[in-house]
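User: Can you predict the 3D structure for this chain?
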Amino acid sequence: MHFALGLRRIRHNDRVTIAVLFTEEKLGQATDRTEYDENFEHLLVGADRSKAWTERLISHVETVLQPNPNERLEDFILTKLDQKTTNKANIIEQLGQCMNDAGNDFGSSTQYGSTLIKCGQTHQKLGLAYKDFIQSAAMGFMQPLRSYLEGEMKSITKERRTLEMKRLDLDAVRSKQKKNKMLNNTSATMADSSDVEVRNAQAEFDRQYHITHLMLGGLQNSQNHHLSCLYDLIECEVQYHRKSLQILEELHKKLGLSRPVSNVSTSSSPRLRTATVRFDYDASESNELSVLAKEIVSIISDGDDSEWITVEKPATKQRGRIPRNYLQIDV
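Assistant: Here is the predicted structure, written as structure tokens:
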């Protein structure tokens, strides 16, 4: 019974010693702390950096994929409950539906109504393309990085905590051994026991140090995997924007907004002469053009008529004739 009480007292004293050492380290007062080597410290810093930046990357990509924080919270809750997220329309699809409803209300026989319907159908296609992009990005980038934090990084954090406890144990028995030697009241038996404690603590520390070092050294492989995931994310973005552009170009053609693109560079096209309007002129005929003084116009044709010149306003592309004497032709 007395032995059990003594053993409990020793263990209690060890815990107090560890707590004191830990407090002294936090206050910067520790003098006999077991130090890690420079390479190991570098690995620790790298692990902290990897964890912090991976968390930030996930957060920012998540915000891009789902800007609405309420929607993100709902998706998170449903995921935790092992329920599939509802297949509800995103904001692009909602805009498309609104355009469809407005177009049908205005009437599909009207130009405005039919155009709204075409735009609505296009935006619903864009919304579906965005859903595909979100799913691909989540599977190819978000999920692997989350798995890394939940798996490998959690294991490393756990081993690091264990290593810190082993280090504190080692420092505690060393401190106790040092104090006993300073007091010079240690019997040979107690000295041997103290040496055994130090050797055991050192062996435990070395074993845990080796395990943690191996796990930290494997982080480079994780970074290589994350690089591959980043490539996948960029590929997803390229595919999404390419598909979106294709959908919008189809709408462009349907609306008759497409203009042929000349294969000839603008630098090889003949440059139009310009003229400065000297006085205001109000058109009196349908083939004439109203202009203001000091306005710059392009000369389209001065023809055979000595009194009139056909000009064009560069900004509006309006064309018409104005009296020649109203112009100062630029050289």
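The CA atoms of residues 141 and 227 lie 10 Å apart. The chain has a mean pLDDT of 81.
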